[in-house]
Specification:
The chain has helices at residues 12-23, 59-62, 82-103, 138-156, 179-188, 205-218, 234-245, 257-270, 281-286, 296-301, 309-323; strands at 3-7, 27-32, 47-50, 67-70, 107-111, 161-166, 168-170, 194-195, 199-204, 224-227, 230-233, 252-253. It is of the alpha/beta class. The chain has a domain at 3-171 and 203-230 and 292-307: Rossmann fold, CATH 3.40.50. It is globular. InterPro entries: Epimerase_deHydtase (IPR001509), Hopanoid-assoc_sugar_epimerase (IPR017829), NAD(P)-bd_dom_sf (IPR036291), NAD(P)-dependent_oxidoreduct (IPR051783).
Amino acid sequence: MMKVFVTGGTGFIGANLVRLLLKNNYDVRVLVRPESNLDNLKNLEVEIVEGCLTDSNLYQSLKGCQVLFHCAAHYSLWQRDKPLLERYNIIGTRNILAAARKAGIERTIYTSSVAAIGVKPGVAVNETYQSPVENLVGYYKKSKYWAEQEAHYAVQLGQDIVIVNPSTPVGSWDIKPTPTGELILRFLRRKMPAYVNTGLNFIDVRDVAQGHLLALEKGKTGERYILGHQNLTLKEFLELLSEITGLSAPQKIIPIWLPLSVSWVDEMILAKLGKSPSIPLDGVKMSRQPMYYNASKAVRELGLPQSDIKTALKDAVNWFMLTVDC
């Protein structure tokens, strides 16, 4: 039985990956921070070790494992969180890859993001495209870019690392929740009277988990693979939610200047006065153009599944209805 080490196992993608690994008879060890919410790991037969990505003795926790799945990252679009994004996404990735090298890990699957790739107006980009880092909107995207560079550097040092870049996963175990989960919750709570004219690439989160396992089995060292599926406008996404739930989809489009103005006041003025901002400025800036991707490389080389997005949305809705006050 192969022993694997998973970071980020308490999160959305990580929780689905841990379940898939257990289903496929892997022996799973999960790194959790002392303050982590462990609900996503409840009743699972995993070995839990406490620690942080920046611990100096992290290699001790990896000893005895053959494979590392590094899924953990700090996700935030708030500008105030730049120090945390640098600490956990960049320095944390550098540290755990060095720890894996010291512990003798044979292969690492590093979970990057399409955020690190960037977007190109009017084009669904693939792995060959790279937006200049200065054009990536917000420090979250920049931090994922620089973290991915840490992985490429580690490959140059001789480590066997495969990079996967999930797009926008949808499904169960979105415990935090992600921004997409927040959108679904707002829809279910009837707190979404309008929408912005944007678009995203969506994928069933179980397909993302499968993509990680396929990357372990078939991925090429140093390569990156977009784990995505269907490009949808936000309007199309909301209409799918309407079909599933029977709730009306919003019909009004918000001009982008309105949320930009609100978010600027929120972060630049109210937050400095001690009030909690409600809309991240960088999140609004990202929505100014569709974020579309082409996952054909992962489909062709890894066999990435392309499950029905409507099914994934049904799973997400059912999970939120059972676990959250909607």
